């Protein structure tokens, strides 16, 4: 994973999710990225840079429980 032109972590796995129709992945991320909640890029096959963002888990909530919570 790349942020501001520098390596900022390591993607450990990535796969297509038919449930949310997007790619999802797991990664080790530098603490600065977690603290800022910022985005970053992942270098895909062929060298293409793909925008990514952090999500809290679980990022898929089929029952809608996260949506129903009152803050």
Report on this structure.
The chain contains two helices and six strands, in the order E-E-E-E-H-E-E-H. The model has no long low-confidence stretch (mean pLDDT 76). The chain has 71 residues and is mainly β. The protein has helices at 31-36, 65-68; strands at 2-3, 6-7, 9-17, 22-29, 40-43, 49-52. The protein has one domain (2-68): Beta Barrel (Elongation Factor Tu (Ef-tu), domain 3). A hairpin with a 2-residue loop joins strand 1 (2-3) and strand 2. Helix content is 14%, strand content 41%. The longest helix has 6 residues, at 31-36. The strands form three sheets. A two-stranded antiparallel ribbon has the order 1-2. It has a two-stranded antiparallel ribbon with strand order 3-4.
Quick structural summary:
This protein has 71 residues and is mainly β. It is built from 2 helices and 6 strands, in the order E-E-E-E-H-E-E-H. The chain has one domain: Elongation Factor Tu (Ef-tu), domain 3 (Beta Barrel), CATH 2.40.30.
Oligomer: single chain
Fraction of residues in helix = 10-25%
CATH architecture: Beta Barrel
Query: What letter string, H or E per element, gives the SSE order?
Result: EEEEHEEH
Total count of helical runs of at least 4 residues: 2
CATH classification class: Mainly Beta
Overall shape? globular
Low-confidence stretches: none
Here the CATH topology equals Elongation Factor Tu (Ef-tu), domain 3
Rg estimate, integer Å: 14 Å
SS content category: mainly beta
The N- to C-terminal Cα distance equals 32 Å
């Amino acid at each position: 994973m790349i942020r501001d032109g520098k390596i900022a972590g390591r993607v450990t796995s990535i796969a297509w999710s038919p449930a949310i129709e997007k790619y999802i992945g797991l990664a080790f991320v530098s603490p600065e990225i977690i603290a800022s909640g910022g985005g970053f890029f992942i270098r895909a096959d062929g060298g293409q840079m793909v925008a990514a963002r952090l999500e809290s888990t679980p990022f898929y909530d089929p029952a809608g429980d996260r949506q129903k919570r009152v803050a």
